[in-house]
Design brief:
Largest sheet: 7 strands, mixed
CATH topology of the largest domain: Rossmann fold
Structural class: alpha/beta
CATH class of the largest domain: Alpha Beta
Helix content: 25-40%
Strand content: 25-35%
CATH architecture of the largest domain: 3-Layer(aba) Sandwich
Number of domains: 3
Number of helices: 11
CATH superfamily of the largest domain: HUPs
Radius of gyration: 30 Å
Number of strands: 27
Length: 458
């Protein structure tokens, strides 16, 4: 599924998550691909936390560090070393000074409106014309300026086809507190500058990132050219979307912080924590990702494709009857029966013994004149017993059931955050915590506690 890498000797790759929240199914794609390649070529993989100061809208979140590492561990992604951008500010300052000395960067005092106008018109501002000595002096002064007064910009072609590439900011001032280094630093690099420096210093050979970061890749190449450094090979992947699933880390963070979502493992976040909680097999996630390969095409697939990958793992679990929104059914003249049912139709993993009488719980709406079969038990019509044995000639519609006098109450947390309440056969008590099972004719679930389950998938 994954093509061979160019120059695949001594491969060194990196994962670069921004810790604003845990990883979700979408941004796991490049991380799994990185891991696959490193394992293939017996290379090295670094985890580089992209924890520059971020923005007010997208800040660094303290708990995200642990959540990211927890998610990677669950995916069986193993890295050789962890680096934090917030520990490397003095390194970035050194190279900022060097790029100023080379005449490729300047301290700019222009307002956002002036800059936008200059970019659109392709003209330089007066700040750009200052000497190297003036810019070095102003660079040192930046550490004492008020937030928003100045920024360090890199000189690019002001006639570049993409206005956003023209004289981009590479350092800015921020007084916001950082969760790791507090207020130790006020001048912070933008990610594309820090990437260019770190990818060189860490000897990264191949970079895999989302297609939405192509301009940042161009900026990395531009900075490598300035310093005359050997370039890493950069590959881009298109966005992976699950149809019918809305995935937004920033939106999920708002809902978690407000209390609408019950933590990052709430199934509505689609974070790796939520998928783990639901009972997904991490190998299924990996198979799902790798199948789409590495290319710049945006991929939009039904969520059922992901479910089908996991189903081959989930369907090995035990089977039980569960009735949602139960309705009482009394079958007239039904005999008392003792039935022994297989825990699984294909694997010998045990039996479940059930005693029944005339009273049952069902969730199906019954139609007058229709013959029904309580699965593995008996046939009835218009609530009257007909026979025990399966008879093809009856054309009976199968429905699942629970003995009304020997059942347990069950709650299922669904993927939309709702809770389904019902009853299950008493034998379900044999399940261990976190064990996957199937509610026959319904869906797969994972046991979270006594009478508490969470939806996995159909």
């Amino acid at each position: 599924m994954l093509p061979e890498l160019e120059n695949n000797k001594n491969v060194v790759m990196r994962l670069a998550p921004f810790p604003s929240g845990p990883l979700h199914i979408g941004n796991a794609r490049p991380y799994i691909i990185n891991d696959e390649y490193v394992k293939r070529y017996k290379g090295k993989l670094f985890l580089v936390m992209d924890d520059t100061i971020g923005s007010k809208e997208k800040p660094v979140v303290k708990e995200a560090y642990g959540l990211i590492e927890e998610g990677l561990k669950w995916l069986n992604i193993k890295y050789d070393k962890v680096f934090y951008k917030s520990d490397r500010l003095n390194i970035y300052y050194k190279y900022a000074e060097e790029i100023i000395k080379k005449g490729y960067a300047y301290v700019c005092f222009c307002s956002t409106d002036v800059l936008r106008k200059n970019r659109e018109e392709g003209v330089s501002c007066g700040c750009r014309m200052k000497s190297v000595e003036e810019n070095l002096r102003e660079w040192k002064n930046m550490f004492n300026y008020k937030e928003g007064k100045a920024a360090l910009r890199i000189k690019t072609d002001m006639k570049h086809p993409n206005p956003a590439f023209r004289d981009r900011v590479i350092f800015r001032i921020s007084d916001r507190e950082h969760p790791r280094v507090k207020k130790k630093y006020r001048v912070w690099p933008l990610l594309d500058f820090s990437w260019a420096i770190d990818d060189h210093l860490l000897c990264i050979t191949h970079v895999i990132r989302g297609k939405e970061l192509m301009m940042e890749s161009d900026m990395e190449n531009y900075i490598w050219n300035i310093f005359g450094w050997k370039k890493a090979i950069i590959l881009h992947t298109g966005l992976l979307q699950l149809e019918g699933v809305k995935i937004s880390k920033s939106k999920s963070r708002e809902e978690v912080e407000s209390g609408k979502y019950k933590g990052w493992d709430d199934p509505r976040t689609w974070s790796l924590q939520s998928l783990k909680r639901r009972g997904f097999n991490p190998d299924a996630i990996r198979e799902f990702i790798v199948e789409f390969g590495i290319n710049e095409n945006e991929v939009s697939v039904p969520v059922d494709v992901l479910y089908s990958k996991d189903k081959k793992y989930a369907e090995k679990g035990k089977r039980f009857f569960f009735v949602d929104n139960p309705k009482k059914l009394i079958v007239k003249n039904a005999p008392n029966l003792n039935v022994e049912l297989d825990m699984h139709p294909n694997f010998k993993i045990g039996k479940r013994k059930i005693k029944t009488g005339r009273e049952f719980y069902i969730q199906d709406e019954l139609i007058k004149g229709q013959v029904y079969r309580l699965m593995h038990l008996l046939n009835f019509k218009d609530k009257k017993f007909i026979s025990k044995d399966y008879d093809k000639g009856l054309n009976a519609k199968p429905i699942h059931w629970v003995n009304a006098k020997d059942c347990v109450k069950v709650e299922v947390l669904m993927d939309d955050g709702s809770i389904k309440k019902g009853v299950a056969e008493k034998t379900i008590k044999v399940l261990k915590k976190n064990e996957i099972c199937q509610f026959e004719r319904n869906y797969f679930v994972k046991k979270e506690g006594e009478g508490k389950f969470i939806y996995l998938h159909k």
